[in-house]
Amino acid sequence: MSTLPACPQCQSAYTYEDGALLICPECGHEWSAQGPAVVVPDESRVIRDAVGNALQDGDTVTVIKDLKIKGSSLVVKVGTKVKNIRLTDGDHDIDCKIDGIGAMGLKSEFVKKV
To answer: Alpha-carbon distance 5 to 17, whole Å?
Structure first.
């Protein structure tokens, strides 16, 4: 049983020492073995649309550019209204369902809040 503290970021028990540092192999976080670990809460990431308005889950947005759908001949046209969006982490930070196309991910830089 390890007497090393758990990782302050991901709470993994698999930490190890490397000189004066403690390292978490799961998330890669490094912190000093001397003194208490200070956990800094993650700032809530604010996702903004193309004009700088903050987006929230459930918002309605409008597409501002024709978007070709990879692997398909379909196109999401300018002015398409998308209701009830869900914000996610990742490259495509909006999950939504578009009428006539189905579920897909959008980048917030191509939408404007209504």
So the answer is: 10
